[in-house]
């Protein structure tokens, strides 16, 4: 398998819904921003065969407007949250390797690194945010992750 990294302005041709491209675009990567945050309201169920599977119920965490009425802040307690990004990888023939931004580590929080391969047009990207024991404050549209985009060779399956 030979993956080709998409660079510079070509990155913009396969991503949509960017908040501010000049700040998000890097030579070999795109910085991803927070759209929504949900908390896990109830437990999910997983069994061996899948017939009893049940997703956890999610509850949206609303950001709070403080001094700047243009943007609000989330103030998260320690725990796990489901993050949905603003940005959308629009072409199913591309994959992205998403990893936490260095600044996220410096707050005592993180999320797993993962490959993302859209299975449908305009599919939202999500990940689990692990908030450290001191909690974290996140401003709307915070850049918390970095995505390196690759062209997926034909007949490869990253799903």
Poorly predicted sequence stretches spanning 5 or more consecutive residues: none
| Structural domains: how many | 1
Order of helices and strands: EHEHEEEEEEEHEEEE
Structural class: mainly beta
Radius of gyration: 17 Å
CATH superfamily, called what?
Deoxyuridine triphosphatase (dUTPase)
Topology-level CATH name:
Deoxyuridine 5'-Triphosphate Nucleotidohydrolase, Chain A
So what's the overall shape?
A: globular
Give a topology summary.
Elements: E1 4-5, H1 9-12, E2 15-16, H2 21-24, E3 30-40, E4 58-60, E5 64-65, E6 72-76, E7 79-85, E8 88-89, E9 94-100, H3 102-105, E10 114-116, E11 126-131, E12 136-139, E13 143-151
Antiparallel strand pairs: 1-13, 2-8, 3-4, 3-7, 3-13, 5-6, 6-12, 7-11, 9-10, 9-13
Structural account:
The structure is a single chain. 8% of the residues lie in helices and 40% in strands. By secondary structure, the chain is mostly beta strands. The strands form 3 sheets. Strands 1, 3, 4, 7, 9, 10, 11 and 13 form an 8-stranded antiparallel sheet that branches. A hairpin with a 6-residue loop joins β5 (64-65) and β6 (72-76).
Question: Short summary of the structure?
Answer:
Helices cover 8% and strands 40% of the residues. The protein contains three helices and 13 strands. Strands 1, 3, 4, 7, 9, 10, 11 and 13 form an eight-stranded antiparallel β-sheet that branches. It has a three-stranded antiparallel β-sheet with strand order 5-6-12, with no helix packed on it.
């Amino acid at each position: 398998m030979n993956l080709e990294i998409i660079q510079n302005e070509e990155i913009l041709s396969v991503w949509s819904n960017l908040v501010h491209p000049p700040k998000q675009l890097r030579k070999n990567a795109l910085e991803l921003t927070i759209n929504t945050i949900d908390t896990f309201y109830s437990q999910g169920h997983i069994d061996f065969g899948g017939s009893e599977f049940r997703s956890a119920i999610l509850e949206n965490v609303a950001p709070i407007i403080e001094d700047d009425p243009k943007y609000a802040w989330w103030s998260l307690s320690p725990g796990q949250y489901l993050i949905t990004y603003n940005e959308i990888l629009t072409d199913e023939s591309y994959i992205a390797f998403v990893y936490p931004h260095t600044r996220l580590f410096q707050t005592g929080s993180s999320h797993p690194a993962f490959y993302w391969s859209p299975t449908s047009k305009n599919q939202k990207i999500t990940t689990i945010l692990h908030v450290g024991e001191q909690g974290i404050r996140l401003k709307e549209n915070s850049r918390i992750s970095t995505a390196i985009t690759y062209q997926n060779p034909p007949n490869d399956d990253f799903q």
